[in-house]
Amino acid sequence: MMKAISSRIFLGLLPLGLGLFLGMSPSPTPLHRVQGGQPAGLQSKFLNSTSCASCHSNAPLATAMRDSKSRPLGQYDLWRSSMMANASRDPLWRAVVSAEIQATPSRKADIEAKCMRCHAPMESNDFHGDTDARMSLSMLDDANDPRNPLARDGASCTVCHQILPDNLGKASSYTGKFHIGPSKQIFGPHANPAVQQMQMRTGYVPAKGSHINKSGLCATCHTVMTNTLDKNGKATGSSLPEQTPYLEWRNSIFNKEVQNPGPSAQSCQDCHLPSKDVEGNSISTRIARNPGGRDYPFLSSRAPFGRHILVGGNTLLPEIFRDNAQALGVLAPAAAFNATIAAAKNQLQKRTAKLSIQGLTRVGSDLQFRVRVENLAGHKFPSAYPSRRAWLKVRVLDKDNQQVFLSGGYDGIGRILGAGGKVLPEEKAGGPFFPHRDSIQSSGQVQVWESLMGDDQNKLTFTLLRGAKYLKDNRILPKGWKPNHPDAPLTRPIGIGSDANFVGGQDEVSFKLSAPSASGPYKIEVSLLYQTLGNRFAEELFQVQTPEVAAFKSYWSKASRVPVIVARVSATKN
User: What are phi and psi of 314, to 5 degrees?
Assistant: First the structure.
């Protein structure tokens, strides 16, 4: 149901340069057994990621999977601290699913099945083929359940690399409706992979599949549609596009699926699983090593090679995983989560948005200016799950460095403040919500970019399966977004009124404030801020009493909740 990734997200999947395993064991032992412990007679389609790690992680004596500066790029090593790897361990996801079940208990099985389709796909697909499975979250906590190891391995290697190209990019593939065939082919971007080593060790056959680098692969779990239910679990006839970063991307200058892609065209993978190093140089390297920790002498370097960082803008959950590793059962060490957090911040601060101050002028005793936010991402900003938000902090100082104006200030736990440093009512459960603003003149007015759901009675709701529409969706559109595009109806802005400054690729907000010239010059400081989990969304979630919500709240309360500063700009005026 929900992908915490973040989200910017938007997240790409795994064009792993899989090709080579060495070992003498035959195909893997069946992981599923019937009551009594006897083999069920069914071969698993999947293997745990640790099996892939024996050849696709870095080793001190191997040059494989390194960039030109010998920095390690092992696919497993980078992936294991991502939100993809920890999709089924994600305590925020677990909390939200439990809240949805409490709101509609008669549909518990359906809710778990739909949500686990993408968060625990190896079990969902393995037991029930390409249909929504009747799965249970209990398997994630029961170490004695034979399904547990694969269920807890998240969006793992042998899911993404076995997805068939059949229906990618089509509506029939959305909401986790990817297809995995019976042939146990592992797709990668390279032609003529060495077959014997992988096949002998794992039973899989590596094959070239150009679709592994296409955005439609990511779209299977990052385009999610949900049907609206009443409290009795009855469908109301409404539906909600829970997240649509792929559709947003298709209606942008970044779309690579058109006949003649423009110079800005990039796939999901180009940003979220880049084939360039941190300096922007293309990576060429051996894509695997042998299980003994040394290079295969018969392998040559290949390109492209994707860095499996798989980051969007989520820094909150990697921190929670790092600091609660034992409780959450994560496999990655703290250093790996630190690297993921750093990569997410880098993505936010270098590839997400640009700020500028426009038209700064004095009119009598007032200062007037516009703040322009330019969206650099290939989808809306923020994108995906509705817990995410961005806002402007605008601070004005006089010649004595005294603050004379502040909009969008926040406290040490990430709550937006108004005049006098008081928490605004929009931050509290049951309160009003921040309206879209084209102009701001007081500290109580804040521009917040977010999506807010409404139910069939047009009432604000934070329960996904009550969501029938969006009451507000002023998230900044990607560059090139057009209102007449086929995907526009599902991605159009909502609640922006007649704001002519809200256009594809940017939004502008006008400011007017009293600033007598005698107290100048004035310094204007503007910051663009981002949260994976906005305080209002969290407060609404915490109204629900379930063990999963309580567990998440305990992790969240100890984590850093202050927003990430995406961009800054300043100017001075007499």
Answer: -85, 110
* 436: helix, strand or coil: coil
Q: Which of 186, 155, 190, 150 is nearest to 83 (CA)?
A: 155
- Token pair 């700020």: residue: 355
Separation of CA 63 from chain center: 31
**Run of H or E including 269:** helix 268-272
Q: In which residue are the tokens 């390690």 written?
A: 72
Using only C-alpha atoms, the chain has a radius of gyration, in whole angstroms, of 24
How is residue 408 annotated by DSSP?
A: S
Which SS3 state, helix, strand or coil, does residue 495 take?
coil
Write the secondary structure of 359-404 as one string of H (helix), E (strand) and C (coil).
Answer: EEEEECCEEEEEEEEEECCCCCECCCCCCCEEEEEEEEECCCCCEE
3-state secondary structure 144-212: CCCCHHHHCCCCCHHHHCCECCCCCCCHHHCCCCCCECCCCEEEECCCCCCCHHHHHHHCCEEEECHHH
CA-to-CA separations, 105 to 101, 142, 213, in angstroms, rounded: 5, 22, 39
Buried b (16+ CB within 10 A) or exposed e, 65-100: bbbeeeeebbbbbbbbbbbbbbbbbbbbbbbbbbbb
Is residue 263 helix, strand or coil?
coil
User: For 92-133, what is the HEC assignment?
Assistant: HHHHHHHHHHHHCHHHHHHHHHHHHHHHCHHHHHHHHCCCCC
CA angle, 79 as apex, 65 and 98 as ends, to 5°? 175
SS3 228: strand
pLDDT in tens, the chain (574 residues): 443 333 333 333 333 333 322 222 333 333 332 222 322 334 589 999 999 999 999 999 999 999 999 999 999 999 999 999 999 999 999 999 999 999 999 999 999 999 999 999 998 866 565 555 467 888 898 888 888 999 999 999 999 999 999 999 999 999 999 999 889 999 999 999 999 999 999 999 999 999 999 999 999 999 999 999 999 999 999 999 999 999 999 999 999 999 999 999 999 999 999 999 999 999 999 999 999 999 999 999 999 999 999 999 999 999 999 999 999 999 999 999 999 999 999 999 999 999 999 999 999 999 999 999 999 999 999 999 999 999 999 999 999 999 999 999 999 999 999 999 999 999 999 999 999 999 999 999 999 999 999 999 999 999 999 999 999 999 999 999 999 999 999 999 999 999 999 999 999 999 999 999 999 999 999 999 999 999 999 999 999 999 999 999 999 999 999 999 999 999 999 9
Q: Which of 553, 555, 558 is nearest to 541 (CA)?
A: 553
> Domain limits of the chain?
352-573
pTM (two decimals): 0.91
Length of the chain: 574
